[in-house]
Design a protein that fits this description.
There is one protein chain. By secondary structure, the protein is mainly alpha-helical. It contains five helices and no strands. The two termini are about 40 Å apart. This is Phosphoserine phosphatase.
Amino acid sequence: MLTELIDKRKTMLTDSEQHKEKRNELNALASTHARERNQLNGQTRECVDEAQKHKELRDENNKAVQQIKVERNQLNEKANVLFEEIDSYKKEHGAISNSRGIKEIQKRIDKLEMDQQTRVMNTDKERELIDQIKQLKHQIKEQEEELEQNKEIHTKLQEAREFRRAASELHATVTEKAELAQQHHDLMVECYRKADKSREAADEEHRKFVEAQEAADAEHNQFIACQKELRDYDKVIGGIRKKGKKTKVNKEQKAVRQEAEQVFQQFRAGEKLTTDDILLLQRAKLI
């Protein structure tokens, strides 16, 4: 029975070590997934923060576009008023017959420039639009050159040109700000895309972390159960060994007692005792 218990204890000890080793491996794996998850969460936060910065810059540029557009439109309106007066003069004096007025041409230019700024088009289409704008501006220039010969409207023409020049500069700024706003918008979208990707990866690492941690906990519980059974085996085996040792001592004591009684009888019969005989009688507490 004792041998069987010792063998079972050895098997249990092996199982305990295996569960302990597996638990440690799974805890290490869980820690790896936790580090990866935390790193990815950090990347997500960085991407979101960067996206927010681009969003703010986009909104600032869009706000500037709206403000500058108001100023540009005001300047264009002032120029239009003057060009209307010039066109009225042309009609009255037949300066340029059967041709569109400067204001009408400029409105067409403004529309084309707005299309260039806001519409998505291929390279050929954009080049065609730019050519149209150039031709219309050339028409305005031709009319202005003819009108400049008239001293009556020379001052108005110069003033209108100045308003239009200033409006054109603001339009260039509008285009620049709009392009910047679009660039920051595209960067913002890209940052959010990266944030979504790293967030998904972090969620996957967290799932693996939980899975490994739960498996490690299960192995730990198995290890604890094995340790409890080992303690139970130790108690039983220790009890059996103690009982066997006590039985052996009792047998030895009984044999010594029997031998000592024989020597004691010899002593009573008058036989001479040796030193060993005396020591034997002392051990048996007969003297």
